[in-house]
Amino acid sequence: MEQMNTAAAKSIRCRAAVSRVAGQPLEMEEVEVAPPRAHEVRIKILCTSICHTDITFWRMEGNHPSIFGHEAVGVVESVGEHVQEVAVGDMVVPVFAAQCSECPDCLSDRSNLCSKLSNVAGLMPRDRTTRFSSVSTGEPIRHFLSVSSFAEYTVVDITHIVKLDVEFPPAMACLLSCGISTGVGAAWKVAAVEPGSSVAVFGLGAVGLAVAQGARMRGAKRIIGVDLNPDKFAVGKRLGMTDFINPNDTGGKTVSEVIKEMTGGGGADYCFECIGSTSVMAEAFQSTRNGWGKTILLGVSGNKAPIGIPSHEILRGRSVIGSLFGGIKPKNDIPMLAQKYLDKELELEEFITHEMGFEEINRAFELLTQGKSLRCIIWMDGAKEIDNGV
């Protein structure tokens, strides 16, 4: 197929779910999507999903009007100059984390945070402009996390693109673009969970459950899930959890006290915070054992509050580490995770609780905020509605 470049591509008008007021329902609008510029790709989105990070920023003032969404899969519609990695018709996963493969961070095994191209709030990373505008008013519309997948077409920098085999199931590819890769990657790459170890996971959304699965794959002996929703335990057990704690049902004990009792008095070897609550981050730290306990922070907090950890506790050999995207280098690791799915080593179907069409996106938001959904696959061309609950 002949490559369609910037010179040949024209603006496209399509539907997008635009967020105009913080915390209010998205508005289905007609938007204009400009052609890709140099080092950019325009993608026809096949399906997208909603992550808790979308919810966090949707509720915050100052991010509007925006097209949110960063968990998706699509097909390349056109490419800009200097794009050789993908071609028109390729199936690709857009990701919020860049990988330029040239900077010191991308060339190091110690980091997955590209230092050449960082996310620029609401804009494309290279020229700091937008490719979206309102058809009715001409008003520019902000991007989100370099992806903006709540639109039928979007423009993404090539450093934020991962190519997958066109035969790979699109819904499963969508899951790998953020949440599941984050959780599995955190267990594998950030914590490097050891066989026979004990793990506690705070928050059993999709990321937390993926951590549990990743820890099981690494050979953890005990995997403790912590969540206020007891319905999460059933799916957690299927993904590798051995124990469950409801913080409202501990008989007055703190969660850290319960975890220490369950682990012979010492505490867990690894604790993962997957909520974005600074108080839970502190409790996760208190749940780790002295000597080598490691706390991995994955949750996105919207209030930038400090974490209350006594300095003398750090001196006892415990550590805290933060992680974006679970340490995953997208172009290297997402194809590897896709292969693990094909080899039946990685479970993905378990995370899909709902499927619906694009026009139902506000209902998908409600399901996630109410804790009734793990991942809802939103099909741009409509879909048979599926509701499996949590």
Structural class: alpha/beta
CATH architecture of the domain at 180-327: 3-Layer(aba) Sandwich
Count of DSSP strands: 18
The end-to-end span amounts to 42 Å
* Mean pLDDT over all positions: 94
Total of DSSP H or I helical runs spanning 4+ residues: 10
Name the helix and strand elements from N-terminus to C-terminus, one letter apiece. EEEHEEEEEEHHEHEHEHEHEHEHEHEE
Principal-axes geometry comes out as globular
Strand content: 15-25%
Domain Alcohol dehydrogenase-like C-terminal: 206-336
Protein name: Cinnamyl-alcohol dehydrogenase
Family: Belongs to the zinc-containing alcohol dehydrogenase family. Class-III subfamily.
Domain Alcohol dehydrogenase-like N-terminal: 38-164
Give an overview of the whole structure.
The protein is α/β, with parallel strands linked by helices and 390 residues long. Among the domains are: 12-18 and 87-163, no CATH class; 180-327, NAD(P)-binding Rossmann-like Domain (Rossmann fold), CATH 3.40.50.720; 353-389, no CATH class. The protein is built from ten helices and 18 strands. The strands form three sheets. Strands 3, 4, 5, 8, 9, 16, 17 and 18 form an eight-stranded mixed beta sheet that branches. It has a six-stranded parallel beta sheet with strand order 12-11-10-13-14-15, sandwiched between helices. Helix 3 runs parallel beside helix 4 (206-217). The termini are far apart. One of its GO terms (molecular function) is zinc ion binding. Its cofactor is Zn(2+). Keywords: Metal-binding, NAD, Oxidoreductase, Zinc. Residues 206-336 form the Alcohol dehydrogenase-like C-terminal domain.
